[in-house]
C-alpha cells in the first residue's frame, strides 16, 4: 500500500470531471511540446506535462498535492511508486 505523507498530500475525493480536466491539461501541454520547434519550449512543456500527469495520477488515488517546497520531488517519487518504475524518478530528477 502506498503511503501519502500528510506534509505533501491531502486526502481528497475528486469528481470524474476534475480527473478529466487534469488529463486534458496534460494533453494540452504535450500538444504544445509536440508542435514546437524550440528545444526550450519542448523541454518546458514536456516537464510540465510530466508533473501534471503525476498530479493527475495522485488525484486518481484520492490525494491532492500540497504546493510546498519539495513537492515536485514528492510527485516524482509517488509516480514511480504507483507505476512501479524507478526510471520515472531518475528521469524526472534529471529534468528537474
Topology:
Layout: E1 9-11, H1 16-35, H2 39-60, E2 63-65, H3 71-83, H4 86-95
Antiparallel strand pairs: 1-2
Note the main attributes of this structure.
96 residues; mainly alpha; two-stranded antiparallel ribbon
Overview of the structural elements:
- The protein is mainly α.
- The chain has one domain (about 10-95).
- It contains four helices and two strands.
- The chain has a two-stranded antiparallel sheet.
- It is globular, with a radius of gyration of 13 Å.
Short description:
The chain is mainly alpha-helical and 96 residues long. Helices cover 68% and strands 6% of the residues.
Q: How many domains would you count in the coordinates?
A: 1
Helix content: 55-70%
Low-confidence stretches: none
Question: What is the CA-CA span between the terminal residues?
Answer: 27 Å
What is the averaged pLDDT score? 95
Strand-pairing-aware structural class: mainly alpha
Give the overall shape, derived from the CA principal axes: globular
Radius of gyration: 13 Å
How are the strands of the biggest sheet laid out side by side?
1-2
* Number of E strands: 2
N-to-C SSE series? Answer: EHHEHH
What portion of the residues fall into strands of 2 or more residues? Answer: 5-15%
Largest sheet: number of strands, sense, barrel closure: 2 strands, antiparallel
Amino acid at each position: 500500500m502506498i503511503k501519502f505523507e500528510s506534509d505533501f498530500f491531502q486526502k481528497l475525493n475528486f469528481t470524474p470531471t476534475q480527473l478529466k480536466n487534469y488529463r486534458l491539461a496534460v494533453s494540452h501541454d504535450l500538444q504544445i511540446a509536440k508542435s514546437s520547434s524550440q528545444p526550450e519550449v519542448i523541454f518546458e512543456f514536456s516537464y510540465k506535462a510530466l508533473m501534471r500527469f503525476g498530479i493527475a495520477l495522485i488525484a486518481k488515488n484520492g490525494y491532492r498535492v500540497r504546493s510546498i517546497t519539495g513537492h515536485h520531488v514528492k510527485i516524482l517519487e509517488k509516480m514511480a511508486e504507483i507505476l512501479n518504475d524507478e526510471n520515472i524518478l531518475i528521469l524526472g530528477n534529471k529534468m528537474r
